[in-house]
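Researcher: For the record, we're logging two predictions in this thread. I'll number them. Prediction 1 follows.
Model: Prediction 1, sequence and structure:
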Amino acid sequence: MTDPLFDSGVIYAALDRADAWHQRAAEAIRRCRRPPLLPVTTLAEICYFARKMLGGDVERAFVGDVADGAFEVEELTENDLTRSVELMSAYPDIGLVDASIVAMAERLGIETIATVDRRHFASIRPRHVAGFTLIP
C-alpha cells in the first residue's frame, strides 16, 4: 500500500491533543514510510484552524515542520484545477480543498485518503478506483 494523501482535518487532529481523532491521526502520520503527503491546498486551511483553535505558536511550529521537510507538499497543477472544477460541479457539497485532494489522488494513483471527513470522501467516485480507502 502506498502512503495516503492527507486532508486538513487529520493534520489538525494530530496537532490538537484534545481532538477526538488525535490518537488515530497521529498514528496515521507515524505509519507513513516517508514524510506525509499534503496537498498545497491544505496548508492554509490547516494554519487557519491551528491559529484559531490552538494559537499562533502551534501554527508557527506546524509551518516550521513543513519547512524542515517533516511533510511533503504536493503542488497543484493546471490539470488538477480543471479536474477540481469538474468535481466541485459534480459534488456541490465539496470545495476546492477536497476537490483538489481527489484530483491529486487521481493524478498520483493514490487510493488512500487520510481524512476525518467520511461524509464527503466516501461519496466521491474517483476516476482511478471504485472508491477511496479512508483512514484512520
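Researcher: Logged. Prediction 2.
Model: Prediction 2, sequence and structure:
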Amino acid sequence: MTRRIYKLAGAAGLLASGLFLLGGIGLLQARLQPGIAGGTGILDNWLLVLLQLNAGFSGIGFDALTGLNPLDLVLLFLMGLLCFGLYVALKSTSRIGSLIALVQPFLGILILCVTQSAGRSALMGAMLVISLVMLRSILFSKPVAFTGLAAALLLLMGDMGTTPGSRSLLLAACLGAGYLLLIIWLSLAGRRLFQLVRKEAS
C-alpha cells in the first residue's frame, strides 16, 4: 500500500512540475513572438499572472487572478497528492507538520472554489511546511529541503506583495526565481518518492 501511495504522489509531483514548466515555456514563447500579448492559454497559472503583472507586461490585468481557472485547481490537487505521499514518508519525523502540509492544498481548493480569488497560496504554504519537516528527516537531502524553502518564500513574497495596479521588478524577479525553484523542487520530491518505492521493495 505504501509503495502505491509513493508512486501516486511521485507521479503527481512530476506532473505538476511538467505543467508549471510548460506554462513557463509558453509564456516565454508568447513574449518572444511579436504581436502576441499576455497569457499562455490553457497553461496559464496564477503564478505566471503574478509575474506578468509585476513585470508590467501588456495585455494582462489584475482581474486575471479572479475566477476559477481549472489549471489552478489541478495544480493544487496534484500538490495535495504529493503531500499525501510526503506525509506517509515523513509522519515519523513530524506527524503534525506533515499533516498541516497535507491539509493545506485541499483547503486551498475549497477556499478558491468559494472565493474564486483566494486559496492558491496554500500550495506555497504546504511546500514551506513540508520542506521544514524534510530538514529534520534522513529520507530527503538538505538541498531538496532548502530548494523548497527558498521557492516557497520567494513565491509567497511575490504573491502577498502584488496589489491592483502594482508593478515591481523586484517582486517579478522573486516570482521568476521562485517559479524555477518550484519546478525543480517538485521534480526532486517526486523523483525521491519513486526511489523510496524501490527501497520499500528491497
